[in-house]
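Submission sheet (multi-component)
Chains listed below:
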Amino acid sequence: MKMLATIAWRNVWRSRGRSLVVIGSIVVGIWALIFMLGFMNGFMISYINGAIKHEISHIQIHEANFKKDPNIGFVIPGGMDLAESLTSNPRIQAVSPRSLTSGMISSPRKSSGGRIYGIIPDRERSVTHHDSLITEGSYFISDLKNPIVIGKELANTLKVRLNSKVVLTFQDRENNLVAGAFRVAGMLETTSPQINKASAYILMEDLTRIAGLKEGVHEIALLLENPESEAVVLPELRSAHPNLLIESWREIAPELELFLSMTDSFLWVLIGIIMIALIFGIINTMLMAVLERYRELGMLMAIGMNKWRIFMMIVIETIFLSLVGGPIGILLGLMTMYWLGMQGIDLSAYSEGLREYGYSSILYPYIENSSYVYVAAGVIITALLGALYPAYKAVQLNPTEALHTV
Amino acid sequence: MVGVMKSTLWLVLSLISSFLYAQDASEIIKKVDQKMRGNSSSSNMTMKIVRPDWSREISMKGWSLGTDFSLILITAPARDQGTAFLKRDKELWNWQPTIDRVVKLPPSMMTQSWMGSDFTNDDLVKESSIVNDYDHFIRGDTTITARDAWKIELIPKEGAPVVWGRILICVSKDDYIELLIKYYDEDDFLINTMILSDIREMGGRMIPARMDMIPAENPEHRTVIHYNDIQFDIGISEDFFSIQKMKRIR
Amino acid sequence: MMFKMAWRNIWRNKRRTIITIVSIAFAVILSSIMRSMQLGSYERMIDNSVRFFTGYIQVHKLGYWDEQVLDNAFYPPEGLQEQIESLDGVEAAVPRLESFALASFKTRSRGAMVIGIDPEKESHLTGVEHKITEGSKVRLNDPRVLMGSGLADYLNMKVGDTLVLISQGYHGVNAAGKYAVAGLVEFGLPQLTNQVVFMPLPAAQYFYGADGLLTAMAVVTDQPKDVDDVREAILGGLDTTAYEVMGWKTMMPELIQGIEIDNISGIIMLLLLYLVIGFGMFGTFLMMTKERLYEFGVMLSVGMHRSRLQLLIFSEIVLLAILAVLTGFALSLPVINYFSRNPISLPEEYKTAFEKFDIEPIYAFSNEPIVFTSQAWVVFFMALVLSAYPLYKIWKIEPVTAMREGR
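Outcome: structure written.
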């Protein structure tokens, strides 16, 4: 066996052209798959993250009846305390307790319905980072009394500007109408139409005061340090608070899950196709190589090398080629991902459409470390499989015929 | 020394007079308010909604007590007949006889137009707020259809839940009747104009029998309310303005 | 003459030729399949979204789209529905009357969206009848309604209860009515399930005092690509000062952008595929060149001009490429056609997410001609470009070296 290996090794380096091509195919195959995975991952992540980061967060907590009946009376008992205690959980990055109700926002010209959030700016901004999405005005920094921050689209619908006065009308827990006047302190532009068109943010103290509530936390939004820890945190929270409704972003926005499924399912198909392309490329190249080595193989057989050995020789040659191509491919892939991971791929030529639809214009490819191993293994196995047929063909040769070939 | 005294005196005088004026303006507005509502009233009205392509006429009967209670019953046309609106303070209810149902209007319906007119449901409820939600200032005099009138400016108080930037009301000096009301947003754009005319004696008082509401952005749109007859001090109390009454009133 | 020689050369070494042809043909097949699946998924996305929300085309009163209020409803011209349905490429014309109302039951109430429909026609659009989770469907002349299960939940209602609706009708008339609930419906989008009430059109028209009026006539076309033609045809038959006819691209521009984005990633995937295929093809050409070095050496040493040899080899490659691409084309046609009619089901784990939105959990294939032709051309040109290697080699080699190496 050792001799076979040595022969195989020398064969590899003897015909540099062929070897380089096969190594090249393997490198290209690995690189292409890594790039594809990284790109698609980056794609999915940026879309989902956009929604999670600025809109729905990782986890939301409500009082059990609130989702069904968003009456302002359904506060989370001890909401503020709960929010406090959650901040000390190391897996949770940020916590935002909110008051929440729905009502009408009116300007002299128009009225529009929407959700009214009473927030604590410092907390809220650490979870939704809305302060980075302010297009005009500021995020609750100024001294304006009764400030309100609304989406730019809503402002346009109502035909109001910065410092304009709007009136919020909603219902207290007895369903009596209450109202308050607010001044537009800032305008927001996010990737969520719900926020841009139908949400208004005011100070929690203003909302609870107008509603006549002492304490009013209706919703607590959590941002996790690491998205993966959802699998741990969610059950933990649920068992600690069985009387509250605790949901993850998957349940709150099932269309995100749909998007993930669509992209994921397609990804597998693409990987399959590229692997098939790879295997055929290798089969073809190796077949051609066998043809080219007709004479040499015939010679080997004539001097007594048995068919099994010839078969193995070709297979071992392929193994060597893979062992060289594999690491190079992975290295190239790593470098590309690293570089792109920092630079990002700039898709701003299509940026307007992207924004509308929920992506930020720079895509950061992302790939898990384990994927490198899987890809490399997959490609190498494919290469080996690709070598089988040509190797088989090689041993079908008739030595005498081969020797007479020109 | 003299100069300082002079200017101080002048300052004091103008302060006093503006103080007097401010008092006057609020008093004027209060009187106006009283006048239109009386203590209690019952009336017959017609409302006409005018649009470029169509128009609609609605007849109704109304009862009111002070500025906090009112009941309106629609008597024509056939589809709307029998429906009624009850206002108690800031709440508005609607009675639908065809389906035997009373509904309390939620915020989403409050901002909608009332019966398709240029008034909103909210307007019905907010009439009384001109006294309490605003500061009042006299801005001069004017003449409207041969009547001398004050020009009074209403500026919303801090935090008052009204959308207007300011309201201008022209009040006749003789009989404290509102003749003209202009609603402005905070950028001083005119949003709505209400013209009160056809001033005559009804139910023992001088009141405008016709009100036109014209939205500035659609000057071809207009809502006109005519008082056909009205009686004051009819001796009804708060109890009159109940949901049961709303269902039974004819 | 050159081509005759080239042709003979090709068939002289069948094995080599076949391997090369297979390599190229396969490239065509694979890239066609990939492109077909990509386009298939976009088509499906468009179809699903468009059917669900707006239909492919809508006819309204001029100005309705900008201000979607009941007062902007229109009287459909005599025979409009039949007229549209008789056009080529139209699957159905679906009438609608939509507005808002306060829905209440006992002491609870909530804002709801009332959609007046023709239940039978509506099946071409939102397919309401398939979304019924409890109860039964309604007919055109039914006095009963279908409501979203989320809304029913909120109001604590079940099938058979009576829903109260109050609103402002056309020109502000009073709109009030009671309707028995025939069934509950559920959609993938909770916003819809929590808000919607489907009412038979005549009942809705009566409720809103809008007899004979529609807010929109939605049109479903057989094929997405027919939309523009059908729209033109409808426009031709209508008074454009009174009506507007809009295609889904105007009504749902976000969908176009969504597809654009998918397309970008799709093209990148395709480029990656070309890279891999290209390398494979290059390998084949490289090996072919190596294998024929001896032959080239001989031909050069007996006096053939390099340029002639190059031309010969180039012709061989061109012929091979044509043959191969046509083969690939011919093979991909039946494969793709088969799958476009019998799509592959998605693996189990993805099914639930799709079914929630009532989107068929399949891999869709498109059999638009462009799928095949574009890929065929690309691969053809790739082959031509890659032929540069053998030509280069011919240009560079010394005949004697070649003959020696070739042994």
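Remark: The interface with chain A takes residues 90-91, 104, 106-108, 110-112, 122, 156, 158-165, 183-186, 189, 191, 217 of chain B (CB under 8 Å).
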